[in-house]
Protein 1
Amino acid sequence: MDEAHYKLAQNNLTKTEAFTEAVHQKIRHNPTLKGRLEAAIKAGKVEALKAISNHPLFNISAETIKGWLEP
């Protein structure tokens, strides 16, 4: 990689890191947003496992686990 490409890559990495930090700050200072994101991630995990397994018995177990995880 030549020097120009290296500098461009470093600059993009810096912008990505700044954006990531801004998102983290927003989440830390907004408990409602944090709760909604956590719920969405949990739901996505269960749905992903269902899609991967594609087995009716697992779907029953997945719903049981989902019910236990939700307060």
Note: The mean pLDDT is 77.
Protein 2
Amino acid sequence: MNFQTTPILPDTVRSPPRCRICNTDLTHTFVDLGMSPPCESFVQENRKSDMECYYPLHAYVCEKCLLVQLEEHISPKSIFEEYAYFSSYSVSWVEHARIYCHRMVERFGLNEKSLVVELASNDGYLLQHFAPLGIPVLGVEPAINVAKVAQEKGITTRVEFFGTRLAETMVSERLEADLIVGNNVLAQVPDINNFVAGIKRLLKPDGVVTLEFPHIDMLIKHNQFDTIYHEHFSYFSLLTIRTLATMHGLKVFDVEEMPTHGGSLRVFFAHEDSDRRVKNSVSKLVAREIAAGLGKIETYTAFAVRAQQSKRNILRFLVQAKEAGRSICGYGAPGKGNTLLNYCGIGRDFLDFTVDLNPYKHGRYTPGMHIPIRKVEAIDAARPDYVFILPWNLKDEIIQQMRHIGDWGGKFVIPIPSISVIDPKEMAL
């Protein structure tokens, strides 16, 4: 009896991903947070039973340029076509932007003949502060719903992704920039080289660029694993940023350390042939990064163990609290919070609900774990024993806003850098 057989083919060997800056094969893991849905894909009530797409949250580190990065599993268009993050809902972030605008006008002599261009200008949280100063501005924002809010404020905004093609168009329209601003956008660009090449093309010969982004040094030191999510493709040190700048004919001439987002850098760029002198701040921070081990691959590959331990500690606290009969709700529904919830497997068995200031999120559910998102007033109605602060980078602002939970014995829980409990009754006024 003859049987027809199908030949068994060998498994296809997947080629390693490549570094988005220097194209080196990525073979070293920074941390693997498993599978997770996109962090801003909040679920509507009538879609709760629909299938959600999960993608790897596996961060690699490049052995050559030391860029920590995710693969591009999701296109920027699918992430930002309708975006759930509106910058203006953070009072402290808007104030951060206001101070920045006044400082840049004073430092670089901006006036009514200047042009400030912000890339990823969101809802106009920053550019709105230049208007009273008489400085012309232009925003570039790919999210239609967010850009509309800025346009309603009277801020001219182009609804497009930025890169060399748009830069060439803007130059042809005589829109070269004296100051290019990019706050927390560089991490969200999969094609970094195209983005930075566009910046160089758009920048006037004597112009200045400032880019802000979370500092990988702080992420490692303070165990901020939850700041890794799909829309953040890259995580930077100053060492890596200098390499990137040099590749595109730019130079880093100054750097400032900022407390925002758990510890960020504000890096100042100019054309490499610019007269601007490189400040000591650059060499000092580079020396500190090298001393901290950021020039060695081993520093990065050791991080995963700390993230795993943090997960166990968070779950241990939550299990003990629930077994003791305590009620817990969340505060906030940020991207970082959704990474933490999904990596740790924290669902409604631990958090009854979470709240957020952003009305866009009200009535929706967090991606993956499906924790309901309500108005902030829901906390007062529920009077929980613990309020679990997911946007821990805004904990000071939130604690001041919500310290009245102490009236019924409520306490705050901060998950990062390590699980801690704050009793508002024990805080100084």
Note: DSSP finds 13 helices and 17 strands in the chain.
Protein 3
Amino acid sequence: MRLLSGLDEAIGAHEYPATTEEIIEEYGDLELELPNGDEQLGDVLGRLDSETFESAEDLRLSAYSAVSSNAIGRKGYSDRDPSTPGEGGHDQVSF
């Protein structure tokens, strides 16, 4: 996931510790670019319980953990997992 609108710089320069509410108020309208759409940081953090972030890295990891299914690309896709017994399987693709 790529963070847009200078979010990395903004949250890196923010004073920590900071609460979820403080971050949403300050940066909630910033966009996160996902493989299947965009989401605002405020919407993402709104899915979490209120917490206190000790660093920008804590905030970044929390945001990554709370994004919607738009962040996963193709749902259920994997050409690397072994087939289960009784299935015909799939053709492995190498890039």
Note: The radius of gyration is 18 Å.
